[in-house]
Design goal:
Elements (H helix, E strand, L loop, with lengths): L1 H10 L1 H18 L1 H4 L18 E3 L2 E3 L10 H37 L1 H15 L3 H12 L3 H10 L3 H14 L3 H8 L4 H9 L4 H24 L11 H7 L9 H28 L5
Antiparallel strand pairs: 1-2
Helix pairs in contact: 2-4, 2-13, 4-5, 4-7, 4-8, 4-11, 4-13, 6-7, 9-10, 11-12, 11-13, 12-13
Length: 281
């Protein structure tokens, strides 16, 4: 399995590029304290808004300084840790909620299915960003709050996909055999049905991580994202709005980091979709 996975990834150029970008950002996030050249929140006011490759008393600053004299490179590096952490954790929360409710709706059908699907319809009727802005403005900015908001309000896509797959799988012979042997419903759902719908769930998960990274950057840009002072690509873009003409690098580098991370995850998701879809094979 892993051998064919690796060969397929290497054969497809876009998948290889996406995998390389994702691995690169994961390594940057994990080893941020070793990669960053300075404390991301340390201020050198005398060097504020100096351009990239500036030599100062504190050493070389690859991406220059921001409006408060902080090292842009170090903040971009630590921003990768925040973006990936928020994107992955929020996705896991959505995954657990959506798969559980989707399994229940597809397996039991009837009233359970109707209630869960009506909840999905109601939640889909509200634009996510507008809903997130309202809740974050009420709860206040914070990393925990933004993770909970994205995790709790993005489970619907999982629920719909898992429900559809469960509706067809529950009629298969192996499920009927498990029922006849007296296996409990919970074991049938999570041991027999769920493993057979991993492929579409994995694909949705990759794209959901990318959308969560963009959502976190958007909310942080509006001042309703992560905790104040925490290095975040979105907050860096927000802080650079007044200095775009005189200090282009303050907005350019976090913008490029956001674009590359989302692009890499989307390319990897496209490859996973092609690899896991038997129709394409």
């Amino acid at each position: 399995m892993f051998k064919s996975l690796g060969k397929s990834l290497l054969r497809q150029g876009s998948g290889t590029i996406g995998g390389f970008i994702v691995i690169l950002f994961v390594l940057i996030a994990v080893f941020a304290p070793l990669i960053a050249t300075h404390d991301p929140n340390e201020m050198f006011l005398v060097d504020r808004l100096k351009p990239p490759l500036t030599h100062s008393d504190t050493g070389l600053h690859f991406m220059g300084f921001d409006s408060l004299g902080r090292d842009v490179f170090s903040r971009v590096v630590y921003g990768a840790r925040i973006s990936l952490y928020v994107g992955v954790v929020a996705t896991v929360i959505s995954l657990v909620i959506g798969c559980t409710l989707g399994l229940l709706a597809g397996y039991y059908r009837g009233a359970v299915d109707m209630i869960i699907m009506r909840l999905v319809d109601i939640q889909l009727a509200f634009p996510f960003m507008l809903l997130a802005l309202t809740i974050m403005a009420t709860l206040g900015a914070g990393t925990t709050q933004i993770i909970l908001v994205m995790g709790v309000f993005e489970w619907m896509r999982y629920a719909r996909i898992v429900r559809g797959e469960t509706l067809s799988l529950r009629e298969m012979e192996f499920v009927e055999a498990a029922k006849a042997s007296g296996t409990r419903n919970a074991l049938i759902m999570f041991r027999h049905i769920l493993p057979n719908i991993v492929a579409p769930v994995v694909v949705v998960t990759t794209f959901n991580v990318a959308s969560n990274i963009l959502a976190e950057a958007s909310l942080s840009f509006l001042g309703l994202g992560v905790d104040a002072g925490t290095p975040s690509w979105g907050s860096m873009l927000s802080e650079s709005r007044d200095f775009l003409q005189e200090a282009w690098w303050v907005a350019t580098f976090p913008g490029i980091a956001t674009m590359l991370s989302v692009l890499g995850i989307n390319l990897l998701g496209d490859w996973l979709r092609d690899f896991l879809d038997p129709k394409i094979k």
